[in-house]
Design brief:
Chain lengths: 205, 428, 265
Amino acid sequence: MTTNLLLYARSRALPVTVGVLIAAAPATAWFADWLVSGSGLGPRARQPLVVLAPLLVSAAIGASLYTHSEELDRTAVRPWWPRRACQLLLLTAVAAGLLAMAVPGESQVYGAYAMARNVLGSVGVTALAAALIGARLSWLPMLVHTGAVYFTARAEPGGPGAVWAWSVQPGPQRAAWWTAAALFAAGTCLYALRGARPEGPGSRR
Amino acid sequence: MSRTTTHPLRAELRRGVGLPAGAATLAALLFAMYDRADGWLTGWTDTTDMLRSAGVIVGAPLAAAAACWQGGRERRRGTEELLATVSRARLRRTLLAAAPTVLWPVVGYLLTAAVCLAATWQYASDVGGPYASMLAADATAIGSLAALGFLVGRLVPWRLAPPLVALAVFSVDPYIANQDSPIAWLSPGKEHVYAWDRPVWWFGPVSMVWMAGLAAAALLAYATRRRARALALAPLAAAATAAVLIVQTGEGVWRPDPASAALVCDDGAPRVCASRTHGRMLPDASAALAGLSAKLRAIPNAPTRIVESRGDGHRARRTDATLFGWDYYFRRNRIVEPEMFAANAALDATAPPCPGVSDKERYNDLSEAVAEWLAPMPRPEPPIGQDAPGYTRALAKLKAMPDAERTRWLGGYFAAVRSCHPERVTAL
Amino acid sequence: MNSAASVRKLTVRHRRTTALDAVDLAFGTGVHGLLGPNGAGKTSLIRVLATVAPPTSGRVELLGGDVSAPAHRTAVRRRLGYLPQEFGYYPGFTVREFVAYVAWLKEMPRAAASAAVEGAVARVGLTDRIDAKIRTLSGGMVRRVGIAQAIVNDPDLLLLDEPTAGLDPEQRVDFRALLRELGRDATVIVSTHLVEDVAAACTEVTLIGAGRVAYRGTPHALAALGEEAGAEDFGDNPIERGYAVALRRHRSGAAPTTSGWSVTR
């Protein structure tokens, strides 16, 4: 059983993905320290990091949703959805935990709360994208969203903006949390049920 | 012969990831600009500035990531084998394959610029105009970053390369732009502050050389044979020269435009004056300052003009009260915070028009009381802290005075303060 | 001999395995079949002839010159057609766009390209799908797009690596006719596992075994070899039997004298 799981893990490039997640945490911690000490803004200076680090880990997780053998996978006897759901939930938990620890203190202001929320939301968007447009380009919608709201980063916390600009909210705003949680739930469900969208013939790697 | 086969550039531009990438760039840019419309729908310089920032922060990462993805196309599609047997020069092939993800995002940016400039048209003043060379420089920067992203995609066979490229653009550019040194001006999205500035004529073209030179050098180094690779040094040298020119000039790349900075005034007393850039704010400004003006008018020695200031302590005349940062009080030339506007004008009117005058507490309390009487500062709800007792007493006395006596006292106050001797103000 | 492609002492090594071992071959105008077991070195030979891979050692002359000279290599590439074993394409392109793209890559003059594209697509029987995106085509049609891009520049040297994989029997019959037609003016080298293709379309067969030339001759001679050997237990037709006999003789004959170069895979 362990061997099977290891084989499955290798078929989804999980070692590399987990490697990226683990490497992202100390890098984030270092950058957080550097940003906070280098600018006069205090913990607010962590904002770019809280937006961009989840973007990176969600891209890594999204890439791991790709299967080289989706035709073959569909003929498998075991149902796929528990494995898919497990993979996504585990990776998300690891990423959220590690990154939240990388921004200690002042959890209300672009700290652990916002980091965990953004990991959830980004992974949700990425999983949705994997199910709808394919795993290899699954990082794209989150990137577009980040690009669009990153510019409005100075938007006031709370208010209707918190719904769509959830990833740039400082922390405890409820609307932002709801959006991120809903995206994560939708992404996990759709991906677990449908898997990544097959990417056509001739589209190796 | 039925249909003529056109250049393969047409196929490259129509098929594949280029067009969607351009559309995504356009959508994200339009959204970002719409979201911050209040920040730039005031004048040409503000619009140009905001477009430049948005282009680099929103557009460039997207373009670079899409181009990086496109760069990995031959690997994904398995066409490398076939391409290894063709005679067409590698540089031409590289340029053709890079074209869709370089050109379409640039088109997306330029369309956004066109839309935003058209929107600015109805709010901007009659002086100045869109700084086309700056927008062209920014478009060049987006294209150049996309070309660099494309090369990364060619060289790095990793699925995470495109998002990493986007992340790099997201972080490196603001990092450079936020440097506290002239190096910051190398960032194509570097914001600047003053609405009546215009770029020196060479800043746009030289910025183009700087970014395009980097991209061209990388392209040549990648796509030419060993012997021709030295050619890459030429654009690299051009880029370096451009960079040196920009860094040495530093803040001087934007300079006040006398025509835009010139004042236009209403014919009230005291006169209210705005820079011509903000000339369309003048009617609302006059209206918001009407109460203050009426009071100042009656007081001898009071300021005779209320003038938009350049913010560097500069004032044309000692008898001016100045007010900085009009954009803050206005949205699309309509005033949104009239009380705050008037109160801040009153604060400057009651302060000595000279730097370095000591701030004595008695004088401060008096000064604030006078300003408050002239134009009350809107109070936050709930109130923050408590007013100083001296201030409260002074304000109460001022309000209780008979008109003639108050006017006389205020005349003395202004005579003392405006001549930079606040210590000569008589007590209430 | 006036041959479009010739190799002398050609050796190709991939890391530690030897794919081709000091092979001498020459190909003139006509259709040449390359037969041999998987891993025998067919694809390595085609890749060297296509100028994709440089030889480890030996001399490769194509269209009258040594291809190690960059200028001549470029000239050769203009007159070369190549269908790789794994044919990559851009699924979003139409057939016309893709074939025109390859025509551009081969530096065909623009004025001639348009007609050449349509001609090549017509020759593989895809005229009615010329403006369809490749992603919408079946596997056999994609293979035919691959053949069309290989012949768009009317190549003097045409290299086809397993072109018939994925074609149905009828399409293969058409394809063989096309090969015969192309072989009248050009040097066509076809690597295949299907001996019927060789029998029907080729003027000459080269059988490669374990990195060396195991047999060269006409398809007729190869069939005769099978007949001569009589009732052996392999193959359903003379040429298949010939293939088996030639390979077996090559192995047994080669073993004592060339034990030093036995190929491990």
